[in-house]
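quick q for whoever's on today - can somebody do inverse folding on this one?? i tried earlier but teh output was garbage lol. tokens:
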């Protein structure tokens, strides 16, 4: 499903979108450059297999996050096609790299309007996906913590107490 012709971006709007994405990329580059000594020190400790495994895990996590968001939107009555949903969700996620916590939600709500997604539904879906991600991360932490070191679970046993709350949310 493509946006209706009346919602297709004009040349000026397209240029603005490119400028915003460029600003996101610039901000990320600036953040990396400003902390380059720490980045380099950490990068030298990484092995290629661990880097590949971490990258694969991050991609799977992002994809599952996207699918959760899309399913929640569908439950709210806004079925959005896969390609359009990817544009809205992943471009919106760039907002996480700007100062402030609301940018991803605001960006997704704005982009979702092109596909008739109500702003309220978009914001609620974003909040619910955050809760699902937090609960999933907590569950994985509790399950994998004993594998980190025997003392890790002894130190962070209290993470178990948050599991029922995460399950309810």
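ok took a stab at it. sequence:
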């Amino acid at each position: 499903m493509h946006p209706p012709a009346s919602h297709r971006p004009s040349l000026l709007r397209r240029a603005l979108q490119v400028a915003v994405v460029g600003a996101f990329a610039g901000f990320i580059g600036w953040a990396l450059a400003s902390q380059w000594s720490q980045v380099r020190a950490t990068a030298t400790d990484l092995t290629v297999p661990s880097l590949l495994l971490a990258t694969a895990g991050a991609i799977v996590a992002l994809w599952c996050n996207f699918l959760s968001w899309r399913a929640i939107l569908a439950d709210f009555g806004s079925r959005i096609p896969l390609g359009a949903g990817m544009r809205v969700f992943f471009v919106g996620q760039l907002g996480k790299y700007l100062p402030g916590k609301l940018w991803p939600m605001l960006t997704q709500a704005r982009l979702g309007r092109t596909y008739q997604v109500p702003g309220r539904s978009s914001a609620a879906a974003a909040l619910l996906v955050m809760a699902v991600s937090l609960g999933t991360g907590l569950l994985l932490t509790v399950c994998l913590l004993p594998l980190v070191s025997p003392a890790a679970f002894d130190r962070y046993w209290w993470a178990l107490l948050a599991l029922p709350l995460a399950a309810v949310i």
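fwiw The longest helix spans residues 119-148. also The helical segments are 11-34, 36-45, 48-75, 82-93, 103-113, 119-148, 150-155, 163-168. so keep that in mind when u check it
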